[in-house]
């Protein structure tokens, strides 16, 4: 018997292994779990978890805190949702390696791909690095609330080595490939968790240019992956449109097979080919069974746009009459928009037919809903703008105009895009249950004015583990996927399970009290930049390395988080 740093008593333990929950205590010493089950002795601090579920800290493997992590000690809002480890550098975008004359291009790439204001990045980034190891050292110097892992991005790597040829998607020469491979291996040796790339036309710079990696050929990708494989550590991550479905899957399999390193790929259901995701995940499962580890990162709900007068997008943003008042303060704008004549001119200016604008998501009224508070992420199709307008004998633009003015113009509307072909989330449940899937795609730190999916971990537990009327999944499975399997996917074996010797990243959760709040717009980025934040109830305590960082939804101010260096 002795005294421990922390003892959690009377816990309903869901340990992350996937096994059944059990009652017991947990002891923590020096940032590690030292006992689970029966704990003798006392704790310098003891927490009574009676009636509470105790789970590992969540591991979010798909974020974009690459800029925020250099200026902020709190990686919110991820840390508000039980997340204790985030991994950034996804989708082939990031800020290292970099020459001084390429900094602006990397900002334009991040601004375009991830909707992070360029003004915030210009003011917030110190650029006190050039190489990727120097970037890691800069990250290591800043204390933060949760752990952070970084990956080396293909876009920055290609621009650094190839310059203008890389930016304009020119084929890489053998010398180019050799140098990119050398720098990628250097980054992994310094502690980068992996290498990431993107192959989607949806990823463009803020100037509308395609991402540098869009047309990278197989020899380039396999060459880089093979160099990483020679180190025996590091993971691979990719995004693709899968326009050549079997060809892209074969490319990713070759990257993993020839390097010996695991790969994870973003998977979502698109409206045009709504069943391709099944073939992708089934093929990944077959490859993994054959010894080539491939996993699909999937979301906990639809990937949806937030539309609002304070957000980046809304249905009237291109109307000339609206653009005339767009820069007025919100209260003044709302007052002006209530004028009947201006209302008529704004609505008329937004009626665009047979043009590119007319097909934008911001005018797809069949798929636009009130979000509400608490937010409804699986709305009844009968409540859409289009359905409401038909019932009321009105024009859809007239209905959505009223909705935008609700809550004094602060209302947010929801437009599910991916994972919504059937008008519900049935397909998401199938994805989450698939053996080749892991939860991901929250994009924490990104899409700050258009998407707020950082709350995916809370949706995973609340909706899929408790509230959904049909198709719920076992909480033990959900926790195992969000903790152990995500950690394994990025090569972190020291977390994700409540077991002796593991890192003491722990959530104490009021499972019955889990509740998401509606996202809200705040102006707290550098240069007064706007971002969407979302809070949740139900996280009583969150510990990182045995230190409490969140208590009842509020930060304790503690900063035990560190940079996680994979190879070290």
Give an overview of the whole structure.
The chain is an alpha/beta fold and 568 residues long. The chain contains 18 helices and 25 strands. The protein folds into three domains: 3-56 and 507-515 and 536-553, Urease, subunit C, domain 1; 58-244 and 254-270 and 438-485, Metal-dependent hydrolases (TIM Barrel); 305-418, no CATH class. The chain is 32% helix and 21% strand. Strands 1, 2, 3, 4, 5, 18, 23, 24 and 25 form a nine-stranded mixed sheet that branches. The two termini are 34 Å apart. Residues 354-359 have low confidence and may be disordered.
Describe, in short, the structure shown.
This protein has 568 residues and is an alpha/beta fold.
Q: Describe the biggest sheet?
A: 9 strands, mixed
Taking all Cα atoms into account, the compactness measure Rg is 24 Å
Content-based structural category:
alpha/beta
Distance between the termini: 34 Å
- The named CATH superfamily of the largest domain: Metal-dependent hydrolases
Q: How many discrete structural domains?
A: 3
Tally of helical segments: 18
- What integer is the average pLDDT? 96
| Helix content bin | 25-40%
Broad CATH class of the largest domain = Alpha Beta
Overall 3D shape: globular
List the helices and strands and how they pair.
Layout: E1 3-13, E2 22-29, E3 32-37, E4 42-48, E5 53-56, E6 58-60, H1 68-71, E7 83-88, H2 103-114, H3 118-124, H4 132-141, E8 147-150, E9 152-153, H5 154-162, H6 164-167, H7 174-190, E10 194-199, H8 218-229, E11 235-240, H9 245-259, E12 263-266, H10 276-289, E13 294-298, E14 303-307, H11 320-323, H12 330-337, H13 340-349, E15 369-370, H14 385-392, H15 396-405, E16 413-418, H16 426-433, E17 437-439, H17 456-467, H18 475-489, E18 506-509, E19 515-516, E20 520-525, E21 529-533, E22 536-537, E23 539-544, E24 547-551, E25 554-555
Parallel strand pairs: 1-4, 1-5, 6-7, 7-8, 9-10, 10-11, 11-12, 12-13, 13-17
Antiparallel strand pairs: 1-2, 2-3, 5-18, 14-16, 15-16, 18-23, 19-22, 20-21, 23-24, 24-25
